[in-house]
Amino acid sequence: QVQLVESGGGLVQPGGSLRLSCTSSLFTLHNNNVGWFRQVPGKEREGVSCIGRDGLTYYADSVKGRFTISRDNAKNTVYLQMNSLKPDDTAVYYCAADTRPPFYINVKPSCPPARIYNDWGQGTQVTVSS
After folding, report:
1. What does pLDDT average to in each consecutive run of 10 residues of the chain (130 residues)?
2. CB of 78 within 8 A of CB of 34?
């Protein structure tokens, strides 16, 4: 059973924008730490951004100033707005949620490690190419 579902990926030209969505029919996402990750075949998974239960947000240096994470509690959706996209942003993007108590308490000014996330979506492909 898929607990998290990503959408919004696609093909975009360099400099373009996409908005990814992560939603769940099972979890109330504003009660969870939620992270966005990306992975290119042959490379390690990379943390992109995260939003905590407290609403604090953090970003990888590679996307700061270009990506914005947000959530819409009424729609139970977490978004990743991606602007000024570069070919290096090409990857499969995954959302993940910390869904099992006790929930991780983040005390550092950065995203939690991937190991704290219990549930992962199946991913959405983002391709940045002319």
Report:
1. 88 98 92 96 96 95 98 97 98 95 89 94 97
2. yes
